[in-house]
Amino acid sequence: MWHAKSKLYVHAVELHAERQPLHRGTPIGTTLSTKILAALERRKRPIQNALNKFNTYRLDYLKKFAPNQVSLPENQPLTYQIFANLSLHHAFWQDVYLYHSRAPWALSNDVRKGIQAVLTIERTNEEVLLIKQELTSAISWAVDLHQQLSNRVDCIEQQAYEPDDETEGNSITSVDLGDCEESVKRLLVQYVLRDHLSKHKKLILDWALDVAELWSKLHEGDQTHEWFNLVELIADQQLEVDVTVAAPNIVRDGEDNQDNPDYPDDSAADGAGEEVEAAQLMGVLNFDDDAPDYTDNNDTME
What we know:
Blueprint: H1 2-19, H2 29-65, H3 80-84, H4 104-107, H5 109-159, H6 164-167, H7 182-219, H8 226-240, H9 278-281
Helix pairs in contact: 1-2, 5-7, 7-8
């Protein structure tokens, strides 16, 4: 009976392979569909012969070793229609009844299904814990990055009010911006940071509804994370004013900016000038490489 069932499994794998193009969800054309139907028809007779042998061997086995199980629904003769629709992971392919065990898992199909259900629940719980950790890590990253960007922008704005002699030797960034004064560097860096902060705020608002829904399901409505305060703050800011990001003013022909200390004379910079990538300017952030771990210790799997 074991050899007969092994041959059946080979037929099942080949049958599923023949039907695989039908499950791709893409058009296959009449030519390929005709070939598939012809291949399935060719396999039908060998499969039917293997089914007849297996049904005979199983009936003889059950009559000899387990006569009380002959009438069970799962032990009725296997037809081609039923066989063709069996999944490769179906309980039928388990050989528990060949071991003569008297344990509940070997005697009852319901017990085996229950064991599989419990294992599925355990795997699901593990996935839920992982999702909780990833969610906490993601929103903590968003809060921390918003804080760092905001602090850096505030710091640059504060330096704008300090005398030049106090900031001398303390460059706003280590990125090479050419031969230009600190005030020009400050304006360039400030523009990039504000632009990045504006995009980050938009990302937070885009996440807000999905995070709120997922958080309520995972944490049962406990909105104690600082993320929710940040979302409310950004939403209020959007309602109060239209956030506009102003690019640094460029000295145009015919304009006189001599009275504005934030826009020095062109003679203070390299006449040829240099192109600076915005990505390079992000180096001004100088975030700590040893970033904190946002994994919620309470969600750690045991």
